Amino acid sequence: MNYLIRPFILILAPIILLPLIFVHPSNLSNCAYVLILMAIYWVTEAIHLSVTSLLPIILLPLLGVIDSERVTMHYFTNTNMLFLGSLIVARGIEHCNLHKRIALFILKLFGTNPIMLILGFMLPTWFMSMWISNVAATSMGDSIAQAVIAEMEKWAQDHEPPHANDLEIKGKLEFQNISDTEKKEREILIKKNQPIVQQVGKSHFTSLATGISLSIAYAATCGGIGTLTGTGPNLILEGLIVSRYGESSGLNFGSYMAYAVPISVLCLICTWAWICLLFIGPKKIFRQNKDKSQEKKVMGMLDREYNKLGPMSFAELSSIIWLFILIVLWITRNPGYPLWNRLFVYKQTDGSSHSFATDTQPVILIAIIFLSWPAKNPFKKKYWLTKHKHESLLPWNEMQKGLSWSVIFLLGGSFALADACQVSGLSSLIGSSLHSLTTVPPMASMFLVICGICLVTGITSNTATATIVLPILLSLAECNNINPLYLALPGAVAASLAFCLPVSTPPNAIVFANGRIKIFDMIRCGLFLNVVCILIVFICTISYGQAIYGLNEFPKWANHCSTTGNKTLLH
User: Fold this and answer.
1) Which family does it belong to (predicted)?
2) Given 227, 401, 490, 495, which residue has the most CB atoms within 10 angstroms?
3) How far is it, in rounded angstroms, from Cα 184 to Cα 176?
4) Cα three-residue angle 149-146-309, rounded to 5 degrees
5) Quick check: pTM over 0.85?
6) CA atoms within 13 A of residue 87's CA, in its CB half-sphere
């Protein structure tokens, strides 16, 4: 949006919405005022998304919706601490360059054949974006990609025809049309001192460079879907479900991975296949390249970059081990039934037994280890003989540099707004007003929700989209006797399906900034991926997703709005 228009939106939006407060003063209308104002600011980006997320701290208490203490506690909830812990672990991995070693190793492993090269870039970016931020994973992959592309570009220039850049040629090119063997002529103009790739049109090299750049951004998007901490909408879903229903819903790190990782893998495979088809071409995919000089130069560059890292350090090895332990702890806490979680069950005053452990405890434990575990091997004698200060895997000052306060504020603002909507009755009102959707089959409702969210998230922040839509979906499901996860789970995943525009996601913006991608390339590639990924999310949810979460029945733990306790089967 034009920067000249944003100040007017910033000032006029709260003024235009004032009738909501003064015409029918109530908690409900006051909450609606805050919700609509924040939605306008989020969509138009009149101010930074994170700054908008701080508005509930001011407006909700002043308008009498909920008190200040209740609002501010949402900015450091269990989910926010889960995200903070994952940020610290991710920063530790980045600090020791483990993510770069993994990426270069996989690229060397897959080789420099174009289709395998694209897959080699996608796999490490996809995997790392599950555990570190999509922005960090994309930046890592893109920096390596630019070095590879530069090496390919250098090779292309070295293999230009002699004097191709020194002559101005205006003439005619004759060629054979295979279908009718009739000679045709095409006038061409080669400008003086213009690169050969521009003279003859978009070359195979340029197309491959575009495909590599897009593949990195899309792989980060697919990877972020796979874990609860992978991206903002997943964390918002987890926060809303836990605050609204507690642990009874069965949504935790392990169960979410069981649902989302297959979706993530399928999206990745389809993305890889489509990019290869679009930017390499069906003929060249299966054609064996006889000239190996380009592949040798690229492989040589990868070898040089990998050798610069030296042998695997104690810090890198420690990071791998602690990351593996964290993943195991997350998955085995409560994978449908308590495992190590039951070791920490305690009796309450009412006689019931309960465990207070969540996915936050393992990640904070590993985060503390990253901040205190030595970066050098303490089992070597020279470690104790050196007088200089010993660093940890992640020094405190480095941890501070990597903290993404913007996401923490976004999460806090979304939870505060969702709580206000529930307390004021706005969520119930919206859910009741959409009661007519009971005439629509649940599967059709789910498909429409996925499509609608996918459309909206393409033009605005996925976190903002999830913040506004997910609480409404939960209330709608409750009031219509549908399992809340039936709509909210695929809705949260759909909020990440943004492939079409540079503004859709930070990874898209990062690769677009290199100047190798045209908007048309991103749109024609992204539109197809949106359609395919929508179908993948829909099919996976109605198949094995129902088995994991029991989506085909209305659970007792969701009986907030419904007055009946009977289970309603979905057909």
Assistant:
1) Belongs to the SLC13A/DASS transporter (TC 2.A.47) family. NADC subfamily.
2) 495
3) 7
4) 110
5) no
6) 22
